[in-house]
Amino acid sequence: MTGVRSAIPDYAGQSDAAARRLADQQVRAWVGERLAALRDRLPAAGDSEAFDDAILHCEFGDQRVIKALEGSRFGEPEVAAAVEAADARVLASAAAADRVDAAAAPDFVTGVRDALRARIDAIVALR
Fold first, then answer.
1. CA pair distance 102, 118, nearest whole angstrom
2. Percent helix, strand and coil across the chain, each rounded to 5?
3. What is the C-alpha to C-alpha distance for residues 102 and 20, in angstroms, rounded to an integer?
4. Whole-number Å distance between alpha carbons of 97 and 93
């Protein structure tokens, strides 16, 4: 979890359903802020279906994830660790947003979108 906490020092973790919902929001907000900053710096980076999709994932929680995180199973150490690993992967995908140039932006945005989708799939699969 050190990777998650280094990016989001007040990361709520997986201790209970309320913490898991907050952690989900924190991860999505952190990624969304990086994408918004990238679009501000390179406006053309925001002109794609992948960007729109990624931003939607950040702005709105996936109901399947929210429902899954309500389950007591998600408080079990192995499951909590799997969720935090998925969170760390999506944070890592967006971490370089401030260093992406215009040529690399389309692939970067697609990679972030794909990481967000993979995070959703990983959490839903843990149900």
1. 25
2. 80, 0, 20
3. 35
4. 9
Could you report how far apart the first and last alpha carbons of the chain are, in Å? 21
C-beta separation of 109 from 47 below 8 A:
no
The beta strand positions in the chain, using DSSP E, are none
Distance CA 61, CA 47 (A): 22
Angle, in degrees to the nearest 10, between helices 49-59 and 105-125: 40
Q: Which three-class secondary structure state does DSSP give residue 26?
A: helix
Print pLDDT tens along the chain (127 aa): 568 999 999 999 999 999 999 999 999 999 999 999 999 999 999 999 999 999 999 999 999 999 999 998 998 999 999 999 999 999 999 999 999 999 999 999 999 999 999 999 999 999 8
Query: Is the Cβ–Cβ distance between 41 and 104 less than 8 Å?
Result: no
Check residue 4 and report its DSSP letter.
Answer: H
CA dist 51 and 84 (Å) reads 24
> How many Å apart are CA 19 and CA 38, to the nearest integer?
29
